[in-house]
Amino acid sequence: MRQIPCTIAVLLAVALAGCAAALPPVLAADIAYAQQQWPESTAETLQQGRQRYVVRCSNCHALIVPSAHQPGRWRKEINEMSKRAHVLPLERDLILQYLVTQSRDATKP
Ligand code: HEC
Q: Cβ–Cβ contacts within 10 Å for residue 48, how many?
């Protein structure tokens, strides 16, 4: 019996972390890539973009993995979706940095 509450806690934690966990983490290679386009990029700005993406972009539909689209498509989508999500320009730029960086190897448009 003593193990049941623990099992439930673990299941809950996994469920809550589910969506965000599927998003790629920010790695050193990502920072180097981002800085080619945004010299001011750091691990922190990319990490903030990742967090803002989770918070702002999961209200109406499931989070879309960055590799689902190429960077050019994200640049278009982010403008349209930022209006819908009422995202501020600064936040929009952070989210874009994260998405463009993480989708650089995507093959689908
Ligand atoms: C207010 C609701 C809403 C919010 C918030 C929202 N979206 Fe969307 N999104 C939609 C709807 C509705 C569609 C379906 C296609 C359409 O109507 O353009 C969509 C479609 C998309 C698509 C294209 C479909 C696909 O599967 O690739 C992308 C990419 C996207 N959203 C990204 C984002 C991003 C990035 C954010 C955060 C900045 C965001 N969305 C926030 C409503 C929203």
A: 18
State which amino acid sits at residue 52: R
Task: At 55, list the tokens.
Answer: 């918070």
Q: What is the pTM of this model?
A: 0.85
Q: Work out the pLDDT band at 18, boundaries 50, 70, 90.
A: low
Structure-token pair, residue 42: 């750091």
Can you tell me the distance from the alpha carbon of 10 to that of 86, in angstroms, rounded to the nearest whole number? 34
d(CA 41, CA 61): 28
Q: Is 100 in the pocket of ligand 1 (CB under 6 A)?
A: no
Token pair, residue 7, equals 């099992």
Answer yes or no: is the C-beta of 61 below 6 A from any ligand 1 atom. Answer: yes
One-letter amino acid of 46: L
